[in-house]
Structures are given as structure tokens and as C-alpha cells.
Amino acid sequence: MEILVKIYMCNELGEFADWLYRNYSGILGISQIYTVSLGGFVLVGIHFERGSKISGDVPVGLAIYGLGDRVRGYCSLPIPCKTDGRIIRMGDLLQSRAEPLEADLPLVRDLGLEVVCMDGAVAVVDEVGCIDVYSRMGQFVVACGLLNKWARAGGDVYREFRDVAARL
Questions:
Q1: Positive or negative, the Cα torsion across 31, 48, 54, 14?
Q2: 153 is a domain residue
Q3: Which residues fall within 8 angstroms of residue 4, CB to CB, at 6 or more apart?
């Protein structure tokens, strides 16, 4: 994966989304990227197309949120969960009120991702400094698609991740 060295502010997260789409939508099978900027807050939605080899022919979406000097990525998986009977919503995650969930998912430990229960489904979360957006969030986008495919159909996620990373 190409790594750009650039001083990167999170309120410019839309530039990352445009760069990702321009350079890697064909390889990753990304159909749409939506960017909403509200002052210093930026929200990016990324959707894999139905025919994507990364997400296993299933449409998958993920959200990346940036504010100040941090960026968080959220990837919901089709795996049900509960935490002490209470439902964690997106607002709880944005405000860091969600407890980590113990789940043995491939790639999670290797990439330093967090797993939480959000709205009754397992979600994988990554948080990085703005300077690491190009390197880390690109990996997160690939991992999200592969983990969704793995949750539905299984497979060798590690091999597929290495294969995709070699093409980026």
C-alpha cells in the first residue's frame, strides 16, 4: 500500500476519501463514497459494491469519522451480540462510552482493532491520529470488507488480506 507522508488534519478527511476512491475503487470494489463536512467534524461513508471480491459479493458499508486530531473507523459485522442487556448506539462510540467486547475475530489483534457491541451487532473500531489516515484507514477499509465476507461465508482472511495488500 502506498503511504503518503503529509501533515493531515482530520477536517480534511474528505481528501482521503477522494484519494481512496480514485486510486483503489477498482481493486477494492468500492461503489460509493459519501463525505459530509460540518466545520471540524467530517463523516465519510464507504460502500462496497455487490460484486466486490473483498466483501464477498455482499454490499457492505462502513463509516469513518474525524474530529480534531483523531480519526475513527466503524465497521459493523453480521454477528449478533449483547452487552449487559444495554444497547450501545453510534453516539456512545463517538463519545467513548462503549465497553470492549471479547470476540475472537481474524485480523483484529494483528491490526490493533477494537471490537464492541453496537446496536446488537459486533462492530470493529479503529482509531488513529490524522497523520496515519492514509496508511491505517486503507488497511481498515480492506479488513472491514474481508471480515464481513468471513462472517457470512468463512475463508482464509489472512491470505486474502495479504493478497489485497500486495496489489495496493
A1: positive
A2: yes
A3: 134
pLDDT by residue (tens digit) across 86-113? 555 545 544 444 455 566 788 888 888 9
How many domains are contained in the chain? 1
The DSSP letter of residue 10 is G
4 part of a folded domain = no
Q: Which grid coordinates are listed for 65? A: 469519522
What pTM does this model have?
0.79
Confidence (pLDDT) at 158: 92
Burial of 22 (0-12, 13-18, 19+ CB in 10 A): exposed
Q: CATH code at 117?
A: 3.30.1460
Q: What is the percentage of the chain residues whose pLDDT exceeds 90?
A: 5
Reported as a single tens digit per residue, the pLDDT across 135-161 is 888 888 889 989 988 888 888 999 999
Residue 2 in any domain: the answer is: no
In a domain, residue 95? The reply is yes
In the sheet where 30-38 sits, what is the strand order? 30-38, 41-48, 61-67, 70-80, 121-129, 114-118
Non-local CB neighbours of 42 within 8 Å, separated by 6+ positions: 10, 11, 12, 13, 14, 35, 36, 65, 66, 67
Domain residues for the domain of 71 are: 10-167
